[in-house]
Automatic annotation (TrEMBL):
It comes from the Bacteria. This is DUF3093 domain-containing protein. It comes from Streptomyces variegatus. The lineage of its organism: Bacteria, Bacillati, Actinomycetota, Actinomycetes, Kitasatosporales. The chain crosses the membrane at residues 30-50, 56-74. The keyword Membrane applies. Keywords: Membrane, Transmembrane, Transmembrane helix. The keyword Transmembrane helix applies.
Length: 191
């Protein structure tokens, strides 16, 4: 199971959507690199300062821990709010879980045609001021979709899809692998 390699397991003889399993792996490279660099720097300082200046070394250790948390705030946030799983007929994003069957098939099909963030930015750049003003006016009148899983916005480096529930609620899902997630949701919805 992994990232774009999310896969369906088993036959469709089980209950509705139970056979599809998908888990989106979040990138870890940034966290590993920053942690190793900071740990190397703290170890280097330990070699210079310990045992005579242990108080200074503990201050350096504390500040280094704070710096590591600041540099890794976005990856930590992604792990808490935007980890995506589809299994046992349930879609889990962060701390929120909903049944896959509550998503409409039409909204899943429409999500495939939604432009990616880069395509959307390119289309905005090619519009006139009047068209942008009209888009802004319409977007203020429309209810924005709720971000599934929590968080304030879609994190840097992630794409987004908007789907709708049978109750008419629009949900925004942040994802690293848009096509693989939509494929897993469609398979779970049709199983």
């Amino acid at each position: 199971m992994g990232g774009a390699d999310g896969h369906g397991a088993g036959a469709s003889t089980g209950p509705y959507g139970q056979a599809v399993v998908y888990e989106e792996k979040l990138p870890r490279r940034w966290t590993i690199v920053t942690t190793m660099v900071i740990a190397g720097w703290v170890a280097y300082q330990a070699g210079i300062l310990l045992p005579e200046d242990s108080t200074v070394w503990f201050v350096i250790l504390g500040f280094s821990t704070l710096i590591a948390l600041v540099f890794n705030a976005v990856p930590i946030s992604k792990r808490i709010y935007h980890r995506v799983h589809v299994r046992s007929g349930q879609l889990t994003v962060g701390r929120e879980t909903i049944p896959v069957e509550s998503l409409t098939v039409d909204s899943l099909r429409e999500a495939r045609d939604q432009p990616s963030d880069t395509e959307w930015a390119a289309s905005l750049a090619s519009r006139s001021r009047e068209e942008l003003a009209e888009l802004r006016r319409r977007s203020r009148a429309a209810e924005p979709p709720r971000i599934m899983g929590g968080g304030w916005s879609v994190p840097t480096g992630m794409d987004q899809i908007v789907v709708e529930t049978a109750q008419g609620e629009s949900l925004l899902i942040a994802t690293h692998h848009r096509e693989a997630l939509l494929d897993a949701l469609m398979r779970a919805r049709q199983t």
